[in-house]
Design brief:
CATH topology: Rossmann fold
Strand order of the largest sheet: 5-8-7-6-9
Shape: globular
Number of strands: 9
Number of domains: 1
Helix content: 25-40%
Distance between the termini: 25 Å
Radius of gyration: 17 Å
Mean pLDDT: 94
CATH superfamily: Nucleoside phosphorylase domain
Number of helices: 6
Largest sheet: 5 strands, mixed, barrel
Order of helices and strands: HEEEEHEEHEHEHEH
Bound molecules: hypoxanthine
């Protein structure tokens, strides 16, 4: 168990979160819907890496969302912040140790597949890791899971099917596709985006993949949800900007929130 998990468990009584939730860029306000049992600043959690991105608050919120016990990371830690990649394993392992069997990861992404426009939501079916880093490239402890393990169903088909049902019932269009991760922090070049399209990527972003690798090792079921906040570089008249990412995320956050709540209701 991580030192952070021990610290939390000593302070939350008998509360057991069943689903971990990681909120991406511009999506932090989704945590406002949680009825909190306990809130921790990352800075107060031993060994926990801190977020520094301006729009990423660093708080772990335990409580109920749509009646379901969750542990929500309001603000994630990105590789582009210069953290040791191995430190990105700590949040996922902490959520697992607290009792989370599933992990819902959200992110803002640039659309490469032109069937998706800004504001569109996509369930991640698979990923391509072009970050050049891996949180598990570190000394191994069998307690965290196996050293070598498959990623074939890292994005659990059963959770995706639940998300499809939830989207249908709420009148939300949910695309499916492949998320390609780069380190950032710069947006991509148009040539990179053309190359990523030939690799089969539908969306590009700067997060999620390290967390999903850790969750897969830990045996957690993952639902990955991307929000297209912009067309990827070269696919729209204007280059992507951080402002566009946050403005679009704010506009489409309602759909993402309703989708997540509806998924959690089905997990109860
Ligand atoms: N590229 C990488 N990350 C992103 C983008 C993008 O276009 N949009 C939101 N996150």
């Amino acid at each position: 168990m991580t030192a952070a998990a021990r610290h939390i468990q000593e302070r939350i009584g008998g509360f057991v979160p069943r689903t971990g939730l990681i909120l991406g860029s511009g999506l932090n306000d989704l945590a406002e819907a949680i009825s909190p049992e306990a809130v921790f600043d990352y800075a107060d959690l031993p060994s926990f890496p801190h977020a520094t991105a301006p729009s990423h608050r660093g708080r772990l919120i335990l409580g109920h969302l749509a009646g379901h016990p969750v542990a929500c990371m309001q603000g994630r830690i990105h590789l582009y912040e210069g953290v040791d990649p191995a430190a990105l394993a700590i949040p996922g392992r902490t959520l697992k140790a607290l009792g989370c069997a599933n992990l819902v990861v959200t992110n803002a992404a640039g659309a490469i597949n032109q069937a998706m426009r800004p504001g569109a939501l996509m369930a991640i079916t698979d990923h391509i890791n072009l970050m050049g880093a891996n949180p598990l490239a570190a000394p191994h402890d069998d307690a965290d899971g196996p050293r070598f393990f498959p990623m074939n169903d890292a994005y659990a088909p059963v959770l995706r099917s639940i998300a499809r049902d939830a989207a249908n019932q709420n009148g939300i269009t949910l695309h499916e596709g492949i998320y390609l991760a780069v380190t950032g922090p710069n947006f991509e070049t148009p040539a990179e985006i053309r190359a990523f399209a030939t690799l089969g990527a539908d969306a590009v972003g700067m997060s999620t993949v390290p967390e999903v690798i850790v969750a897969a090792q830990a045996g957690m079921g993952v639902l990955g949800l991307s929000m297209m906040t912009n067309m990827a570089a070269g696919l729209a008249d204007d280059a992507p900007t951080a402002q566009e990412v946050h403005e679009t995320a704010a506009l489409a956050a309602g759909d993402m929130g309703r989708l997540i709540a509806s998924v959690l209701e089905r997990l109860a």
